């Protein structure tokens, strides 16, 4: 696939009912460097200004953290990035892969229940019905992705970032985060290691944050799939972070002292670089 270059601006603005203080924040907005994309430039700014420190978390994501002790009526976090994407061609639907090994490296965290993803018997039953005894893990992954895409209806504002998989299954609707969580649950019940991916998707209609899934497949390693759109990813996808579910990869997370009443506004702008 041809290389594509993207300029990304991400703005998160918090406005507090009364000034906040002793604010501590972690930011996961640095695009990944891997075999499918290259990070060429990144900067992070905050208003009020604060020195930022950087580390890599347990899952290898770049994390910036900062503190603002003084009272402040609002907090603006702005990131700028230049990313080149160069994914390989999509995997053929008839690709034959060996069965999953009973133990795959780095898979324990991605086979276990997590904060937003359970492994209930009902979830397992759905996965079994969707795959109908398939032994080729790639064919099973495609079947699960298509099942999730058909089972859920995309409905903006129908859920929130703390919605659990069991509620998504009951409501049968959600946003990209919910599609990803459902695919994670179904895959994990069948002992298919799967992890959550946060990132961006550039389309002709809009630029937005997005979520999809990566599966650990024999001989291939981690392979990305997007159940929201029922497809493998291409050069319009830009990965930020991976984890067990959304709780591990929230773009901005933290705490502060002050009023519980606040407003959050997020704006993402993605342009060809």
Give an overview in words:
The chain is an alpha+beta fold and 273 residues long. It has two domains: 4-86 and 250-272, Immunoglobulin-like, CATH 2.60.40; 108-248, Roll (C8orf32 fold). Helix content is 17%, strand content 42%. The protein is built from four helices and 14 strands. The protein has helices at residues 121-131, 137-151, 165-171, 176-189; strands at residues 4-27, 37-47, 53-56, 62-68, 72-85, 153-154, 173-174, 194-202, 207-217, 221-226, 231-232, 237-243, 252-257, 262-272. The strands form three sheets. Strands 1, 2, 3, 4, 5, 13 and 14 form a seven-stranded antiparallel beta sheet that branches. Helix 1 (121-131) crosses helix 4 (176-189) and helix 2 packs across helix 4. The two termini are 17 Å apart. The model has no long low-confidence stretch (mean pLDDT 94).
Give a quick set of tags describing it:
single chain; 273 residues; alpha+beta; Immunoglobulin-like; C8orf32 fold; 2 domains; 7-stranded antiparallel sheet; 17% helix
């Amino acid at each position: 696939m041809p290389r594509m270059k993207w300029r990304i601006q991400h703005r998160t603005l918090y406005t507090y009912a009364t000034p906040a203080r002793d604010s501590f924040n972690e930011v996961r907005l640095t695009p990944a460097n891997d075999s499918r994309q290259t990070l060429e430039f990144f900067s992070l700014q905050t208003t009020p200004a604060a020195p930022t420190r950087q580390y890599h978390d347990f899952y290898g994501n770049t994390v910036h953290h900062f503190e603002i002790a003084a009272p402040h009526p609002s907090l603006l976090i702005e990131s700028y990035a230049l990313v080149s994407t160069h994914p390989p061609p999509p995997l053929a639907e008839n690709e034959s892969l060996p069965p999953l090994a009973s133990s795959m490296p780095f898979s324990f965290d991605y086979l276990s229940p997590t904060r937003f993803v359970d492994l209930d018997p009902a979830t397992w039953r759905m996965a079994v019905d969707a795959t109908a005894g398939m032994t080729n893990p790639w064919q099973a992954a495609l079947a699960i992705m298509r099942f999730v895409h058909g089972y859920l209806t995309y409905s903006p504002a129908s859920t929130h970032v703390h919605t659990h998989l069991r509620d998504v299954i009951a409501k049968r609707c959600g946003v990209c985060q919910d599609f990803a969580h459902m695919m994670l649950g179904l895959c994990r019940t069948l002992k298919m290691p799967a992890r959550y991916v946060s990132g961006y998707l550039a389309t002709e209609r809009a630029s937005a944050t997005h979520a999809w899934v990566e599966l650990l497949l024999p001989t291939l390693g981690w392979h990305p799939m997007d159940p929201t759109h029922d497809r493998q990813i291409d050069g319009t996808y830009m990965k930020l972070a991976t984890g067990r579910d959304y709780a591990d990869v929230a773009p901005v997370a933290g705490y502060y002292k002050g009023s519980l009443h606040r407003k959050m506004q997020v704006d993402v702008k993605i342009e060809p670089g």
